[in-house]
Mitochondrial import inner membrane translocase subunit
Amino acid sequence: MSYFLGSTGQYAHVEVNPEKIKLAEVQFTVMASTFNSVLSRCREKCIVPEYGEGDLATGEQSCVDRCVAKYVKANANIAQHVQFMMLPDQMPEYKKVEAMMRDCK
């Protein structure tokens, strides 16, 4: 018995679609890459390299908040623009994901 799913016998008849698994892996990879990019960029801009204390100072906290908010807003604006334009052939990221999906088949 699983603590999270209860009795797993109820899922015995469910088939796993390998293409959906691969798509989920690609989405996870893209999200992890975005998260790591935000993390490193905001750390560079906001956190002093010499650590004097274990916690962030108030100025560092507000800088990180603003940095992440700007990054998310810019990402959303770009996604909205790309979705509106629907020009996947001109996007290198689209070609990269497309290649990853081809390799997974």
